[in-house]
Amino acid sequence: MASNAPVGKPTDMSAPHLPKVAGIDSAVPGPPHTTAPLPGVPAAATPSDAALPPGALIQDRLASWVSDLTTLHELTERLIRTSSLDEALREVLGAGAALVGARRGMAVLEPADGLGPAATIGLGLAHSDLGTIETVPRGTSSYGRLLDGLPEPGHPERVPDPIAIRDVRTEEGLDPRHREVAARLGYAASYALPLATEDAGGLGAAVWLYDEPAEPNDRQRHLIGLYGRFATEHLARLLQVERARVQVSTITEELLPSRLPRVPGVQLAARHHTGPRGGGDWYDALPLPEGALGLAVGSVSGTGPSALAAMGRLRASLRAYAVMEGEDPVAVLSDLELLLRLTEPARSATALFAYAEPARRRIVLAGAGHAPPLVVGERRTEFVETSLSAPLGMLSCWEAPSVELSPAPGETVLLYTDGLLRRTGDAMDRAFARLHAAAASVPKADRSDPGAVADHVLRTLLPEGLGTAVDGEDVVVLAARFE
What we know:
The protein is built from twelve helices and 15 strands. The protein is α+β, with helices and mostly antiparallel strands. A hairpin with a 3-residue loop joins strand 4 (189-197) and strand 5 (201-210).
């Protein structure tokens, strides 16, 4: 007798009707099986399991266990290679989507201690989609309920359990706005996981969205739970690093000039970026008597708070020496050398000080172990020939001759620290050549603005930006354009 089943849709009379369960997305790394869970995770017996002999069943489940462990290892290896909070959150979203079988998701970073930083990252969601989701009343959304229940670090409160909404249309207790947003964005179910542990406290929550009514099975819940605990610890470490970086950056900015002085005959611009470890690079520009101007850049050896403190003391001392005898840069650096040897015997520093008279377009400068300035103009792009000298603190007595420079109208003198060269990752001679080429390529329209000159040099020399630097060196560029 002919079957009444539609063509292309064969019937299966032996298979029982089972509820739809989310599967692992084949587009991302995941285990090749979908049946046996990890040991200790309950699972309903299936006809295929019952048909297998005991030895084959044990072997199959052992293979499943090994595959799950391999998947977790690969995902955690990818996560541990991330070095920023945004990068780690994106990795967590992608890995979680692979483990729970979702296509889209959102991660919210909101530490329970209230000290920040806060961030919202989406997977497969546009920025406007994230904003739409955030219009759902916090107390009725799954991730919002998790965020409100996050424990602070060191508190014994139990970490909230994940929240699964299998069908937004039929789930009881949901706000109408929740259903409206789900219909607009086209998702039917969600699974929210707290990013929290008892040791790290609550850092945030992640939620994955399903296109159809679904929920993770027991095996998937177990895997995402293991991954989530590891991810939270990694995020906690990155959070500490980010907070330390922000603190170092804030202290550094407080130690540097809040604004540049306005002196007739010269335009000034400065660019400063603190590396992740917090170095001791600095700059200064101070008006001096009779319309003169003192320009300085320098770098203190070491990183961290001690280097920042030494940098602050060195900069303050140079300002005092510049006011007293700024017209003699050699004397200024000699005094600085003596101070460093007496107060910081285990530390060295490089410095360059220039005494500028803008009205006469005259500069007298001296350097101690520092890279030479670069003159950028329409007719020339060249390094200033300064005398070779050891850094401050390297000799029992420092003294080197000064050099005099006469910039032409419209020329810009660039002072910078060695971090600008080291961030290129090239050998020093190659880095100098690249710096020269970058300065020579400044467009004519930008040469009238010292800030534009500095920005062009930075973009050309470091096309990938300051955030992906080699060794995380500080970068300082001080540009002075003479009229």
